[in-house]
Structure prediction request, 207 residues.
Amino acid sequence: MTEENNGNSTMEAVQSLIKTKDYMEEQIKAYYDVLEDQDVGMEGPLVDAEGFPRADVNVYQIRTARHSISCLQNDHKAIMVEIEEALHRLHAREKAKRDQDQAESQAESMEQEVTLPSPFARVDAVSQGSPACQAGLRVNDEIITFGSVNTRNFQNLQNIASVVQHSEGKPLSVTVIRNGQKTQMGLTPQQWSVRGLLGCNIVPIQK
Prediction:
């Protein structure tokens, strides 16, 4: 086996080996066709009863075909082993990559869980067409910042109400935790078809 094939187990390399195998099989079949045309096969005698080369067949052509078949069959066995080993290496490499990706994903998820701040409030209703809805706020979003209000300085819902009243028509930066991921959006408190400036209901999270 060549050093190149030892170190190169890409799908392209495997496909190249398979192409070579297919070509060998075509050659073997072509040589068998030569033997079949002369009705001798691999073992049929090439001399007559008196020990002279047979005159009814092309002895040289038959010997060449038999020798070529023998060599090609050995090469075919070798390349089949090579293909199998290359596939094993390829699958092992793909599995190692999947395992690594999974480990990195888990590590990233754990890191995110560790670094995400604790939410202080949760969205339990969002009205269709409201400023909150247009900003992208969803039910069960857990709020970690709402304008200047955050986990460290939040005391009660009056803190949020105060920020909203002083920010009518001005975009507020709101950060929430959604499905374990931090999501940021801009929410502009403003008058709409229903009373209030947000169109959502926010409840504090009990600690």
Q: What stands out?
A: The chain has five helices and six strands. The beta strands are 121-126, 142-146, 149-150, 172-178, 181-187, 200-204.
